[in-house]
Amino acid sequence: xxxxxxxxxxxxxxxxxxxxxxxxxxxxxxxxxxxxxxxxxxxxxxxxxxxxxxxxxxxxxxxxxxxxxxxxxxxxxxxxxxxxxxxxxxxxxxxxxxxxxxxxxxxxxxxxxxxxxxxxxxxxxxxxxxxxxxxxxxxxxxxxxxxxxxxxxxxxxxxxxxxxxxxxxxxxxxxxxxxxxxxxxxxxxxxxxxxxxxxxxxxxxxxxxxxxxxxxxxxxxxxxxxxxxxxxxxxxxxxxxxxxxxxxxxxxxxxxxxxxxxxxxxxxxxxxxxxxxxxxxxxxxxxxxxxxxxxxxxxxxxxxxxxxxxxxxxxxxxxxxxxxxxxxxxxxxxxxxxxxxxxxxxxxxxxxx
Length: 353
Ligand code: SF4
Known about the structure:
Layout: H1 3-12, H2 17-28, H3 43-52, E1 58-65, E2 71-77, E3 82-89, E4 94-97, E5 101-103, E6 118-121, H4 124-139, E7 150-153, H5 163-173, E8 186-190, H6 194-202, E9 208-212, H7 218-224, H8 233-244, E10 253-259, H9 267-279, E11 285-291, H10 305-317, E12 321-324
Helix pairs in contact: 1-2, 4-5, 6-8, 9-10
């Protein structure tokens, strides 16, 4: 619930307005996950809340820690659907990669999550609670949210197919009396749900946008990302151009390009990609090259590092900024495209919470 919704809820219980603020802070700032811990509330009120409300709807089944420090959480909703969240530490800042859906309805050919199909959209609370659980695990309950924590909506699911819940969750997480993670620290990745790109451009306090592209040609993208049959490259790039017009000063947006060995990593692919950006006069963009993270259920392999370097150089020689994203947490199936509720016993399970 937003602060306003919580206020209405407390008034409907016949409780004074200030109690709603107390509880909002307890949930989002102190990150308490039971009413019992809110010892600054009268016992009677805590019992009343216990009877009428839920404070926590996710539980953690397992937690894996990669050799590179990445942590992967397999959570479950109260009605039993899987939710996956990944914590990625880096030297200067930490990033949480959250999910917006349980499973995913899109059928990107190189993605393990796609094999699950859509199980259901996550609620506003389930989106936010992923951050609360991870922050509590990493920093301890009630510790201040470290300044500079970044969020990426790149876990399981297509965020733009759960647009309203996503935007509501981001609004609540931005509250200075709560987690205080402002949209400027958030990047949302879409596989290309074109109407929502136009919608996002109109959101005042909006997150950064990343578009997963993975091919510069329709016939290839139709196979790799079948959503392309619904909104083709022309519609996608036209929307991207419109979005570019809404960028703030100094802001850019990102195209992500999953590099699949021998499939979409040729010199011609790089040249076509640069040409595509030029055709639509997209200048305030950068390309993230993501070497594919293999999994035995998928027929793809990663591009060699020499190929990735050459691809990057071709883009750069044509005036396109390109970066190679280092895969994180591959050993625990936490890397891009690998989230599929996998919990093999051979993964090193450090402890179950
Ligand atoms: S890559 Fe993203 S949008 Fe595509 S199937 Fe996987 S989770 Fe869904």
